[in-house]
């Protein structure tokens, strides 16, 4: 059986972002990413700082661990990273969840395709705006979106762009125009990843949420979009494993 590099398995918690925000879910976080976003809130998955915490697990090891944590108390699992789409054979884990009637969400940036995307219930693709210092390969992203559309998955996918500043906002608009028939989310960026002052962080993030909301509501070119904060950050700050 194939083994996967796993950094965290936790939950139940709420899905704090995007298309299934508020959903009770378990999290499986894989190690490794093909990007290195300037503001990545999960940089420990790829910057080497948590390399000793990476555990090599088979699909059934992961399933066992989820049940050890919360057997009977979950119906939804979110796979995030890092970039889980780097793992071709993750299909094996997806199949176990499918076979056990567990719904699956996936967080990925849209840089790599996998055939198992076609069986994900809530697939979030999060292309990266200029503040990340990453450059989107739109040829790759076009292909991923059209494969999902051709596979009849439109109701199961969404785009989510993190916005830190006006340039990111313009990028988000360009993405919304390019993929105008896909559900679109704008997400508040967290630029203070090290503070342990949760009250101050919440205050700052709510102010940014207000800025982003005001801007979007006044903009007729973004007539159909959802604007959200990271709910888990409002509740628990920068804490890991929640
Ligand atoms: C840590 S990433 C892992 C999945 C995948 N690599 C991706 O970026 O989509 C999960 C989500 O967190 C978002 N994210 C990362 N750092 C963030 C930050 N500082 N503020 C807000 N959202 C952030 C990403 O854009 C992505 O939508
Ligand atoms: N509660 C909670 N919701 C989340 N939504 C996306 C997350 C991620 O890191 O991918 C995340 C996370 O780390 N925690
Ligand atoms: S793509 Fe996702 S995990 Fe990778 S560096 Fe960017 S935010 Fe972090
Ligand atoms: Mg996170």
UniProtKB/TrEMBL annotation:
Residues that, per the record, bind [4Fe-4S] cluster: 33, 37, 40
Chain positions recorded as S-adenosyl-L-methionine binding sites: 39-41, 82, 126-128
Keyword Nucleus: no
Cofactor(s) recorded in Swiss-Prot or TrEMBL: Mg(2+); [4Fe-4S] cluster; S-adenosyl-L-methionine
Coiled-coil boundaries: none
Cofactor note: Binds 1 [4Fe-4S] cluster. The cluster is coordinated with 3 cysteines and an exchangeable S-adenosyl-L-methionine. Binds 1 S-adenosyl-L-methionine per subunit.
Name of the protein described by the UniProt record: 7-carboxy-7-deazaguanine synthase
UniProt gene name: queE
């Amino acid at each position: 059986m194939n083994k996967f590099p796993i950094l965290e398995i936790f939950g139940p918690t709420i899905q704090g972002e995007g298309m299934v925000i508020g959903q009770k879910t378990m999290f499986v976080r894989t190690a490794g990413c093909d990007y290195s976003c300037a503001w990545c809130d999960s940089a420990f998955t790829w910057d080497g700082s948590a390399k000793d915490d990476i555990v090599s697990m088979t699909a059934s090891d992961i399933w066992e661990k989820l049940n050890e944590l919360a057997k009977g108390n979950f119906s939804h699992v979110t796979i995030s990273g890092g970039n889980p789409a780097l793992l071709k054979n993750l299909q094996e884990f997806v199949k176990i969840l499918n076979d056990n009637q567990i719904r699956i969400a996936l967080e990925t940036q849209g840089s790599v395709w996998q055939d198992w995307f076609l069986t994900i219930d809530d697939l979030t693709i999060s292309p990266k705006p200029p503040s990340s210092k990453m450059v989107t390969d739109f040829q790759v992203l076009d292909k991923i979106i059209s494969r999902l559309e051709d596979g009849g998955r439109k109701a199961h996918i969404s785009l989510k762009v993190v916005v830190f500043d006006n340039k990111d906002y313009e990028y988000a608009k360009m993405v919304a125009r390019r993929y105008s028939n896909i559900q679109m989310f704008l997400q508040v960026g967290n630029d203070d990843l090290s503070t342990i002052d949760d009250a101050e962080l919440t205050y700052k993030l709510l102010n940014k949420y207000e800025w982003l909301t005001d801007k979007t509501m006044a903009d007729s070119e973004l007539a159909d979009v959802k604007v959200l904060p990271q709910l888990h950050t409002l509740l628990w700050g920068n804490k890991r494993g929640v």
